[in-house]
Amino acid sequence: MKAFFLAFALFTVLLAAYPFLKSSDEMDTLKGLPWQITILPDGSTQVFGVHIGVSRLSDAFEILGSDMDIAIIASADEVGDLEMYYGHYRAGLLSGKLILQTDIQPKTIKSLKDNAAKVKYMASGQAKKYILATENLPQILEQVIVGLTFIPSVNLNEEVVQTRFGAPSQLIQSDGVKHYLYPDRGLHVALHERSKEVLQYVSPEQFSELVQPLQ
Question: Whole-structure pTM over 0.85, yes or no?
Answer without folding.
Answer: no
